[in-house]
Amino acid sequence: MKQRFFQKRFASHFAFIMSIALILGATMHPEIAVGKEINAEKYIKMLDRRAEKIKKQIRQTKSKIEVTGKTYYVSTDGNDYNDGLTPNSPIKSIDKVNSLRLNAGDAVLFNRGGLWRGHIKSQAGVTYSAYGKGEKPKIYGSPCDAAKEGVWRETETKNVWVYEREIAEDIGTLVFNSGEACAFKVMKITQENGPSLHIKTKEKFESYRDLKRDLEFYHDYKEAKRVYLYSAKGNPAERFESIELLTKGHIIQANDNIVVDNLCLKYCGSHGIGSGTTKGLTVTNCELGWIGGSIQAEGIFGRNHPTRYGNAIEIYGACDFYLVDNCYIYQVYDAAITHQHQGDGTNALTMKDITYSNNLVEDCVYSIEYFLGYPRHEGLTHKMYNIVMCNNLLRRTGEGWGKQRPDITPIAQIKSWAHYNPASDFVIRDNVFDRSTHHLLNIDAGKTDWLPTLKNNVYIQYKDAKGVDCKGSYKFDENIGKHLKELYNEDNATIIFVE
């Protein structure tokens, strides 16, 4: 069943790549296709059109789920006193969903066209999806639209406005008008001797009174529990039609053997879907955007400033069957999709049967991130195997709102860091890697035999920019095809230089 699924997907993607190659003059022979054979501008415009078609297709995907147990229906027109067992007697709130005692095989379906705010604590073996007609159900981590709810009051400091609502969960950013703009989060650099400093400008910064630039904000989540925003054009509630707050917390806390399908998850400061060690996580046909940016912790990694985080879909720990397919993911502070662990636990850790396929990712810091660290305890053996990353269109890493982070140099389409990363049966094939502000790829491992095999991928990057980071940095120049072959056995690459 699984094999037939991927054969079908692959045939569609390969036809797309071949059609572009024929139109633009690429050879697509086993040898490297030299970048000059393809007009980069035309190719990227073709990808623009293709991306819009993919977004439309994903947003219009119908729910095709298997339910062996009970089905619970959730509607904004429902009532939490209902039993929720029919579309005519739906429950209403996420709080009610979280209070249900569900069994493996059950499903919770949200009515299309509805909007909920909150966080789902998923239960093992349950499917979370959609019913009805219209747009995918929206589940926002943002507690409210701060342009319509609550009061903004100008402080004693000109142009600095405070949102008069207590918010104790740290905010990653504020998103204005459904993504037209977002706020810059000011954090403090602490010094042993001297005042604290602005994270970016290095100017003195002690409190909201030191905000100076339009759409910079400071969140005092420890004491006043208030958000302060510099707005040079007056009251934020009058200036913007919508203001979403990316508060700390996952929108969906994942569990074993759950399916998340056909949901639109947006505006949270942690992960869209997040978990520790998890078996059987399936995410299909979803839209995830504007994720992350909250403070993970202060004083970690030896830093003198807080560390922020936030991935769209994450497993931190062991995993056994993990599928992310046909999703549209964009504007994420860290990674769109990731499996990761530092390797510092007390048990052997295995990551296996992982597939990331047919996804469109745009404007994230990492499109796909993975890593598995060196075992810290004697006698432990960590490993990753049976991993496939295929048929994904990955675009413009480093161009999203995550570029406000203080550490921008690690940006890459696929990011493994310089971890131990013991792996086998690991293939990255038939993807399009479309530009990066830093390295296009960072794929590394403790041993050469652990590196994945790359096949039939398209590589688009600025000429002479950073290409590949693997035990050294390689430019994206006329030698990049040779490096891809030597490092990853990539023998059917299409390479496109952007001037």
The parts where pLDDT drops under 50 for at least 5 residues are 1-14, 21-36
* Count of individual helical segments: 5
Overall average pLDDT: 93
Give the strand line-up of the largest sheet: 1-2-5-18-21-26-29-32-35-38
SSE-based structural type: mainly beta
Instruction: Report the count of strand segments.
Output: 42
**Proportion of residues in helical segments:** 10-25%
Note the main attributes of this structure:
ten-stranded parallel β-sheet; 42 strands; mainly beta; about 10% helix; about 500 residues; 2 domains; globular
Record the SSE blueprint.
Elements lengths: L1 H23 L15 H20 L11 E4 L19 H6 L7 E5 L3 E3 L2 E2 L5 E5 L6 E3 L11 E3 L5 E4 L7 E6 L4 E2 L1 E2 L2 E2 L7 E2 L17 E5 L5 E5 L5 H4 L3 E5 L4 E2 L5 E3 L2 E5 L4 E3 L2 E7 L2 E5 L3 E3 L9 E2 L4 E4 L2 E7 L2 E5 L2 E7 L8 E8 L2 E3 L3 E7 L10 E8 L2 E5 L14 E4 L7 E7 L2 E5 L4 E2 L10 E3 L2 E5 L3 E4 L3 E3 L4 H9 L5 E5 L1
What does this structure look like?
- It is a single chain.
- The protein is mainly beta and 499 residues long.
- It has two domains: 50-60 and 249-498; 152-244, no CATH class.
- It contains five helices and 42 strands.
- A ten-stranded parallel sheet has the order 1-2-5-18-21-26-29-32-35-38, with no helix packed on it.
- A hairpin with a 5-residue loop joins strand 14 and strand 15.
- The longest helix has 23 residues, at 2-24.
- 48% of the residues are buried.
